[in-house]
């Protein structure tokens, strides 16, 4: 008895059906993979901040390092430079020419501009400075009450108001667990309004000519704590006027792209929350819906203001 030959392969319709099913599965899988990657980046960022908190506790048992200035009798440097020895970076600490180094502990994986852009911001003289995805709270590490309220100019000492003297034991009357010391900040900040391109530089300091643009300092909350709407100005770049009070609230992922970055405040590359370090050493994700007044209260160590229920 004659039997027909067995059909081999797929018909065109069957092949198209298989392709359609695979496309649907890929479409369902990609968002899940992206979510896992985003969560991993957030966890790495939180781990970086945890390392900063441990380093701060180890270096500042009695007095915390300043935003910029002398510390324990040594020459002037900024806060992240002072923390290098307890971040296993003794070589960088002993030679400022290494301040252009890319430090993993200061690089958030979700900070795409840090990861894809140039790591080094060139300045002349004396050194180049490396980028940072994190910044320090000026209200804690600076000396906001010592700022000269006369309009800064080119003859103003470049480190005015930067030499802080904070101590764990006496400088946090509002509470260690309710005061932010470090927060996320975009390494590159493109401000289309003022047509400026700023960077957050972990080793930035006063150059030899004395002209210093505070806009490059790895800091936030640069202003008067007793007048919540008065930001301080850099002596070199008058565009940089720090923000305090309700205007200080951070920008979330997606809101500071395409030239909308406000370099006077902070930015988180994550969705839904901003990662911060509190003075008690804990790392906290602050919800993106937190009230501006609550965020400002968490930035002030001695203003006797209370956090809202949204904290």
Query: Number of helical runs?
Result: 6
Q: Determine the N-to-C terminus distance.
A: 83 Å
Helices and strands, in order, run as: HEEHHHEEEHEEEEEEH
**Structural class, from secondary structure content?**
alpha+beta
The level of helicity is: 10-25%
> Number of domains in the coordinates?
1
**Mean model confidence by pLDDT:** 83
Concise synopsis of the structure shown:
This protein has 311 residues and is α+β, with helices and mostly antiparallel strands. The protein has six helices and eleven strands.
Question: Would you kindly provide a written description of the structure presented here, covering whatever features stand out?
Answer:
The chain has 311 residues and is an alpha+beta fold. It has one domain (13-299). The protein contains six helices and eleven strands. The protein has helices at residues 12-59, 79-82, 90-94, 112-116, 138-141, 292-299, and strands at 68-71, 74-78, 120-121, 129-130, 134-137, 180-184, 188-191, 196-199, 219-220, 273-278, 283-287. The strands form four sheets. It has a five-stranded mixed beta sheet with strand order 9-5-6-10-11. Strand 7 (188-191) and strand 8 form a beta hairpin. The chain is elongated, with a radius of gyration of 24 Å. The chain starts with 11 loop residues before the first helix and ends in a 12-residue tail after the last helix. The mean pLDDT is 83.
